[in-house]
Each structure stands twice: as C-alpha cells, then as structure tokens.
C-alpha cells in the first residue's frame, strides 16, 4: 500500500498581493521562488534562472506570457516553466494550496529543492588550509601591501597579475594590516560571484565611504536591502523604459555625427577619448535626469567635472590606509565637499522637474521616458515607492555605473578594430545590411540583429574587462577550494587575468571575435558565463542592456559613415586604470565613406 505523502504547509503570500500577468519574488527557507499570476491561474516556480542564478522576479513577463530573465534574456513559459532557450533548463514547478486567500507550498518539497540546488560534488578528502598556508608578497607593518597599490594606481591590476604569475592562482596579500586572498582561477571566480550578495558582499571599505558622502546606493547595498533597491532599479532600466528612451540615444548619436562632420572640415584626426566620454556622459545623464546636458562638441559641463573629481576621491578614500579627513581636511577634501553639494543640488533640481512633468502629464506614470521618471513610479513587491532620501543616491549610482564603464569599452573596441581592419570591414558589412540607407540605427530592437558586432564587443570585454579586479568581503566563514576563509576577509577576483586551465574557452590567444559568432546556440549562453564585466548571478549589472544598446548604436554610426584608423603620430596604447580599465589616450583618423551632407 502506497503511503500518502504528508503536506507540511508553509505560507508564501496572500492572493490579494498578486496582479494579473505579474510576478512576485518570495524567499522562504533561504530559497528563492517566483509566484506568477496569469490567465491560467497561479503558478509557483523556482526563483533563480538555471543559467546564471539571476533572480527571475527582477525580470518581466512579455506579451507572449514568457518570464524573461533580466540577465541574458532567457525566456520561460509562465504556464509550464518550459525553457525557450535550452530544453534542459526548465523551471521547477511547486505544488500549492490556497486557504482563506493565503498561498501555501509544501515545506518538504521546498527543502528537497534546496538540497538539490546545493548538491555539490562529493567533498575531496583533503586537509583544509588557511590563509597562513598561502604564499604572497612580503608585507610591511601597518600598511601591508597597500603602498604597492597607491604607487601604481593607474596600473594597479597589473601588480595583482604580476603577483599571480609569481605566487599562483591563490595567494594572499595584506591590505592595511589585514590579510586577504587573491583568486584568478576561473571556476572559483564564477562560484563566488554566484554566491553574492549573501555569502559575499562588496569590499567592506566601499559602503562607509559612500555613506559618509550621502551617496550610498544599489552598488553598496547588501542582503535584503540590496534586493529591495535592485527591484526599483531593474524596473527603471527595463526594456520598456529603454525603448521609450531610445530616441534620446539616437539624438545624442546624431549630435556626435554632426560634431565629427564639423571637425572634418578642419582635420581628419579626432580626439576620440574626449568625444566618447562626452557622448557616454550625455546619454547616461539624459537617461538619469530626463534632460539633455549637451557636452558632445562642447566643453565638459560643470556637473561632469564635479562627478569626475568625486569619482577619483571615492577611489582614493576606499584604498587609503588612514582616514585623515575625519580629523583634518586637505584642499582636495574641501573641494570634494563642494562638489558633492553642487551635484546634490543639481540632481534634486532634475528630480523636482521630473515630478512636475509627471504631474502635468499623468500618462508618464505608465509610460516613463527615462530613468528618473521610471524610478519615481517604481515599487517593490509590497507596492512601496522609493523615499525622497533614496532617490538621490540611486540617480548618483546610475552616473557612477554608466559613464566610464561604457565609454572605456567603446574606446577599446575602436582600438582593436583599427588594429584589425578585416574585423572592421566585416562589422561594416553587417551594419550596412541592418541599416540599409540609414546613417544611424533607427530602432532599438534592430540592434539584436547585429550578431557580429555583438561578438566583437564580447571579445573586447573578454580581453579588457573594465573592472579588472573585483573586490569583495566574506559575510561568513567560507571554504574556497582547499582553503578556509574566515568571515570579514577581503577576497580579490582577477577578471582580467584568470587561470585558463579550468576553462579552455578563456585561453588568451589573439583577438578573435569568431568565438562568439554562434550567438543563437546553447554554446553561446554557456560561454557567456565566462564573461564577467557585467558580473554574474543575482548581482549582474542591471544596466547591461543599456550599455550594449549604446555601444551598438555608436558603432553603427561610426562604421556606417566612416573608415577609421590610428593617427600617424600614435604611441603604443596601454592599459590605464582610473576607477575602470581603459586604454591610454589615442587619436583616430576618420574618412567619410559617403558624400558629406549639410550639417546644421
């Protein structure tokens, strides 16, 4: 006789909290779930995408009733959980019962799923080692190895890499008197990134620095606070918002084209660093503020200069051994206070103007045209809006994440395709096929057709990730490989220099975009996880889609209209690290492909 399985109920939510064709993320017993309400009734699925463990509740339900993962746009049928991208990666469905409007699932089934998700290969019978067993560079009292970094700030990642070559894929360093571990083995880097934000958090020095400056935002939040903040930001950077904002991206791209056309009347050489950074700042500030700053073709704006100085000071204060400014301030610290004051006043001016626009145009509540409008309407799972105190740092965080990272990646692409003219030619052929007679990419979704352009961008990010060293801190005692790493230990992941043995795909042979060409295949999705400029797992960058669209749009404009090559007076292009990894300054020569047109 078969014994009927006992149902041990555990409450999730009340059905009154569900909206039609919407989903809510729920965490029970430290297991992520997503509850979906559609025309076929309520469905409960595992809450993590089987691809890279991103929270599905941060995604959206599309017109075809698919759950769309926000990380890499994997789609799952919201009725069955079927994976539209990989048949082996469908979502687990949970049985539930409803009592007096409350939804209950079986605790046994939940815990079985948890054990299945945590089921790692059998533990190797090895002696667990500690940091004391790790090799590493010699430290000096009080400062440890910090002075090595402070003396090489523009090439700090190369110091980490040099030590990795000397001491191996696991070694220890000492930062201001505290031991930390540096890891360059690809498999462990992926494992650690997938275990954020609960097992690992951002480098412990980051949050106090940002809180002191009153700009604590999604970048520095952790745990449940991060989960709540991420929900708002993901809504404000959804594909729906980006489609509404795309005309502003196109307008800024036309500004750059017109600036270059005017420049060509005088010279064939372009100050590409200045122009690309101004272009990227114009787009991210246009998105963040809802108003055009207009630095392309002009001098840098005041808020842009304020922002750059603040970013340099944030980087400095995170790594400096002694927080002297709490006792006395140097001129640069007084300048920082003034810059922060002016930035805050400027951002609040834009926030109040956005509130007034929404009041006068109620349709913006449902169809926001930029980040600030969307952020003012975003809610968490309980329908709670952001407070005024949370809005300002969130917008500041968008500026932090959105200018240097994208601008430097574009510059690296331009550097590589001037060195590889055959790649530039192949990109231009694809762009011409997609754009036809147009000079610019007209529709955001057309960027999805640029498979080879996408491959070039991915290959550049493989070789030159803009965040070459990812600094984290453990939230609990952890076992990484054969080493026990105690709570509150700093962990530094080398995304620029990674041990290749565990992943042949990462072998650093010559620049080769062809490895990414199979963009429709499952292999692409598998290899995509080896690319970590946007992060992995739950903390993958919510601005990934914006960055990719921006990069494809400007590359379409450049390569559809111009041949580009390095300046004749060009020196060797080298790595230059200043908050993000970019190329040292270079100029490009451009020549028109088509006949010039009148510029207004």
Automatic annotation (TrEMBL):
Gene3D superfamilies: Cytochrome P450, Rieske [2Fe-2S] iron-sulphur domain
Family: Belongs to the cytochrome P450 family.
Manganese in keyword set: no
Position of the signal peptide: none
Pfam families in alphabetical order: p450, Rieske
Domain Rieske, residue spans: 10-105
Protein's recorded name: Cytochrome P450
Annotated keywords: 2Fe-2S, Heme, Iron, Iron-sulfur, Metal-binding, Monooxygenase, Oxidoreductase
Keyword Iron-sulfur applies: yes
């Amino acid at each position: 006789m078969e014994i009927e399985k006992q149902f041990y109920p555990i409450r999730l939510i009340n059905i009154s909290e569900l909206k039609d064709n919407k989903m809510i993320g729920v965490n029970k017993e430290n297991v992520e779930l997503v509850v979906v309400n559609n025309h076929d009734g309520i469905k409960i699925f595992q809450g993590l995408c089987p691809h890279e463990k991103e929270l599905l509740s941060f995604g959206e339900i599309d017109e075809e009733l698919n759950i769309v993962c926000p990380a890499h746009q994997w789609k799952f049928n919201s009725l069955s959980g079927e994976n539209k991208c990989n048949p082996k990666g469908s979502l687990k469905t949970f049985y539930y019962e409803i009592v007096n409007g409350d939804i209950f699932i079986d605790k046994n089934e939940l815990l079985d799923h948890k054990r299945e998700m945590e089921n790692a290969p059998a533990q190797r019978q090895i002696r667990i080692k500690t940091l004391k067993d790790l090799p590493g560079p010699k430290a000096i009292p009080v400062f440890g190895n910090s002075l090595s970094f402070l003396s090489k700030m523009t090439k700090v990642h190369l110091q980490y890499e040099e030590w990795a070559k000397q001491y191996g894929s696991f070694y220890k360093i000492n930062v201001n008197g505290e031991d930390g571990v540096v890891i360059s083995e690809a498999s462990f880097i992926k494992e650690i990134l997938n275990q954020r934000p609960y097992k690992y958090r951002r480098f412990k020095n980051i949050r106090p620095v940002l809180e002191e400056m009153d700009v604590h935002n999604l970048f520095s939040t952790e745990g449940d606070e991060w989960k709540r903040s991420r929900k708002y930001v993901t809504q404000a950077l959804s594909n729906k918002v980006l489609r509404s904002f795309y005309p502003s991206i196109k307008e800024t791209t036309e500004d750059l084209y017109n600036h270059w056309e005017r420049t060509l009347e005088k010279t064939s050489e372009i100050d590409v660093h200045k122009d690309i950074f101004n272009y990227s700042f114009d787009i991210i500030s246009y998105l963040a503020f809802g108003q055009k700053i207009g630095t392309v073709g002009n001098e840098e704006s005041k808020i842009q200069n304020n922002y750059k100085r603040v970013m340099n000071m944030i980087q400095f204060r995170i790594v400096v051994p002694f927080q002297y400014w709490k006792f006395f301030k140097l001129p640069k610290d007084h300048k920082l206070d003034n810059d922060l004051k002016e930035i805050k006043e400027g951002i609040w001016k834009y926030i109040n103007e956005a509130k007034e626009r929404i009041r006068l145009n109620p349709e913006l509540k449902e169809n926001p045209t930029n980040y600030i409008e969307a952020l003012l309407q975003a809610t968490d799972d309980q329908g709670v809006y952001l407070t005024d105190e949370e809005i300002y740092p969130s917008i500041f965080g968008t500026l932090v994440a959105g200018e240097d990272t994208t601008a430097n990646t574009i510059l690296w692409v331009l550097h590589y395709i001037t060195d590889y003219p055959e790649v530039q030619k192949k990109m231009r052929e694809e762009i011409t096929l997609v754009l036809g007679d147009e000079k610019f990419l007209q529709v955001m979704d057309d960027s999805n057709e640029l498979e080879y352009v996408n491959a070039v961008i991915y290959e550049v990010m493989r070789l030159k990730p803009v965040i070459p060293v990812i600094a984290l801190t453990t939230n609990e005692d952890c076992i990484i490989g054969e080493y026990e790493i105690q709570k509150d230990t700093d962990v530094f992941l080398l995304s620029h220099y990674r041990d290749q043995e565990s992943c042949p795909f990462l072998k650093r042979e010559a620049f080769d975009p062809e490895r990414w060409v199979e963009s429709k295949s499952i292999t692409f999705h598998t290899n995509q996880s080896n690319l970590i400029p946007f992060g992995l797992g739950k903390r993958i960058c919510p601005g990934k889609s914006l960055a990719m669209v921006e990069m494809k749009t400007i590359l379409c404009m450049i390569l559809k209209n111009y041949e580009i090559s390095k300046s004749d007076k060009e020196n060797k292009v080298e790595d230059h690290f200043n908050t993000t990894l970019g190329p040292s300054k270079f100029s490009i020569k451009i020549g028109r492909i088509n006949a010039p047109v009148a510029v207004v």
